[in-house]
Amino acid sequence: MPSLASVLTPAELKGVRALGAEDLEGLLRIVPNRYVIPGALRALQDVHEGEDVSAVVHVVSARDRRMRSRAGSILEVTVTDGTDRLVLTFFLQRDHLVQWHRSRLRPGERIVVFGTVKHAPGPARAERGELPQIAHPRYEIVGEDDALLREAMRPIPVYPLRRSTKQSTMRSALASALPHASEAVSAIPAAVLAAQGLPALEQALHLIHAPRTADDIPAGLSHLVFEEAFVLQAIFAQRRALDARTPAPALEGAGPLQPMLEERLPFTLTGAQRTVREAILERIGRDHPANLLLQGDVGSGKTIVALLAMIRAVDSGHQAALLAPTEVLAEQHFRTITALMGDLSRAGRLDGHPQATAVRLLTGSQRTAQRRETLLDVTSGTAGIVVGTHALLSDPVEFAALGLVVIDEQHRFGVDHRRRLRSKGPAGGSPHVIVMSATPIPRTAALATLGDLDILTLDESPSGRTPITSFAVPEENQAWEQRMWSRVGEEIAEGRQAFVVCARIEESEEAPPSTLELDGLSPPETAGAGDAAGEIAPRGVEETARRLAARPELAGARIGVLHGRMSSEDKQQVMGEMVEGRLDLLVATTVIEVGVDVPNATAMVVLDAERFGVSQLHQLRGRVGRGEHPGIAFFATRAPRGSAVLPHLQEIAGTTDGFALAELDLRRRGSGDLVGEVQSGLGRTLRFLDVLRDAEAIARAREAAFAVVAADPELEREPALREAIAHRLRDADPRVERS
Ligand code: ADP
Ligand code: MG
Q1: Would the pTM of this model clear 0.85, i.e. be above it?
Q2: Architecture per CATH, 44-154
Q3: With CB atoms 3.0 to 4.6 Å apart as the test, which of 395, 566, 720, 729 could cross-link to 570 if both were Cys?
C-alpha cells in the first residue's frame, strides 16, 4: 500500500495522524461516529413546523438584501415542489458568498434540500403571505439527473476529530484513501468469510465510508465487528491450545486436610458451592492447567470454595497462593482462612494439628525480617497456603511446588499477572489458575473478553440470609436524611456496625465529574441552573466523620476512618478494630469497595451516591448483611429535585440481582468500560464490538476461530490473522503493565 503521505494533503495527514492512523489501512479502519442520514423525501404540503425535511424542489426566485443591524446580507430563495412553497434563508457575511449561492440557485434549477422547517404553516401565515422557512439549509444541485439525486440522498459519514481538524478534511482524506481499500487485508480467513456470508473487507470499507443507503452501514460494519471478535477468540483458542500442551500437577489428593476442614466449617455449603467445588476439583485434578473464572454475586461465598480448592492442592503435596488486590483484603483473607482452618493452619506449633500446614501472609509493607521468614517458608514448601498482594508476583518469590493460584476480585488484575504467576509453577509447567470476579459479568461479555477461561457460576446465596434492603435518599428532604441516620443509630444501638462511604478523602480536592455526568444522564433541565449534581463538591472522609460525631442520632458511636492515604499499619489497625467490633461506624473511601467481610456490619450509607458506578454501588452494599442479621443500604444524594439521579439510584436500590445490574450497567455505559475494568489484557476497549448487541456474532466467531486454530495451531496458513493477533497483544501490553 502507498504511504499516507503520498496519498493525502498535509492538512489531511495531520488530522489523520492525530487520530492515531499510521498507514492507509489504519485510516480506512477509522469508523464514523455517526452518519447524517437524509430523511425520506417528502412533499412540502405534508411538512410541519419543526420537522426535518428532505425534499426535491425547483428554485422559483432569489433575492438578497443588506441586514440593517449587522454587516452582511440575507439571501432568500423561494422554492416549490408543486404542492407548496418554501423559503430558504441564508445569512451571509461576504458578498462573494451571496454571489456564489445565487449562481447555483438560479430560477428553474432542481435541487434537493435538507433542514428543519420553521414558522408554522396554516391560515395565519397564508393571510400574511408568509412561507415556511429553512435557515441555512444543506442543499445539492441535482438538475434533472436522477443519478445525482441518488448521490445527494447518501448518508454522510461524521468522523471523530482531533485538534483543529475539520470534518471536511477527514472526509476528503477518506475519499482519497478509499481507492486503496482493495489492498487492506482482513484477519478473517477467506473460507470463514464465505461461510459467514460477510462482505469482503474492500466492499465493507466502501459500505462504511461511502454508503449508498442507511442499510449499507451495518452491512459494512458487520465485517469489522466479526473480525474483532474473531481475532479475540483466536487468541483464546491459542491460549487454550497452549494449556492443553502444558503440563500441570494433577491435584487429586483426597486427604487428610479436606475432611477435617469440612467438619470445622461453621455452616453447611450451599448446593451451588458444592456443585462448583466439584467442577473445580475435577478440573484441577487434570495434568494440564485449569483456567477458571469463578463468578458469583456479592456474598455468594466464593472464598470458601477457593479455600477448599487450595486445601486440595495442599493435600496433593503442592502449594496454593491466594492473591488479593489490596492489603486490606489480603489481610482479611488471611484472617478468614486461619480462623476457618484453626489448628489445621498452625504447622510446627505446639497448638497445631499434627497434619497441619502453614498459612502465610506476604504483603509489600511487611518488615524485612518478617518478610524474609515468610519467603523462606514459601521456598522451602513449609507454607502450604500463601496469601498476598501483588508482592507475591515480584521476582524473588520462589515457590517450592506451586500447584494452584487463586486471584480474588479479578477486575484489578491483568492477564499479564496471570502469565507471570504461571511462570512460578513447576519447571516447564504451570499451576492451575482460578480467577474470582468482583463483579458479575454477563455471559456474552465474559465470553468476549475472558474467553480463555472456563466460567463457573455460584448462582445461589447462602440460605437464611435476608436480601439487603436499599433506599435512594434525597438529602434535600431533611426528614429523610434524619430518618436515615436514625436507622444507622438504631443498628448501632442493637450492637451492629455501619459503613459510611465518601467519594473523596478531603472535601477541598478537585472532583472529577460524577459518573452520571459521564454517562450522559445528567439532567439537561437543571444543567444550566448552576446547581447540577456534578457541581456539588463531594464530601470527604475526615469532615464527614467529624459531622457524624456531632449528629444526635449517632451520639456515643465509636467512629473510625479509613482511606488510601493512610499507612498500611494504620489501615490494618482500623480494619482490625472494625472486625473485632471496637468501632461502631467506619467512614471510608471505596477502599472497602470489594471483598471486605465484617459479618456484624448491617448498615451502609453511600454519600454522593451519584458519583459511583452501578456495580460499585452494588459492591458497596454487599459489604453489609453478610452475617445472620439483615442489611440495609442507603444511597444518599444531594442532586436537585427532578434530576435523573434519583430515579437512577432508585432503580439500583430496587434491583438486588448483581447479574441484572451488570447488564443494566452495560446497556447504560456501553461495553468499553466494562472491558477496561475486566482488564482482559486485550486492550482497554473494544473498538467495534458491543458485547450485548453482538452476542450472536461473538458466538459464531468463537466457533469459527476455535476450528481454525484446531486445524492450524500456529496459524501458519493465516499470516494476516497471526499479524492481527500480534498487533492486538502488542497494543494491549503497555496498558497491562500500568495496572
Ligand atoms: P464473596 O462471594 O462476596 O467473596 P464471601 O466468600 O466473602 O463472599 O462470603 C460471604 C459471607 O458468607 C462470609 O461471611 C462467609 O463466611 C459466609 N458464607 C459463605 N458460605 C456460606 C454458607 N454456605 N452458609 C452461610 N454463610 C456462608
Ligand atoms: Mg470475596
Answers
A1: no
A2: Beta Barrel (2.40)
A3: 566
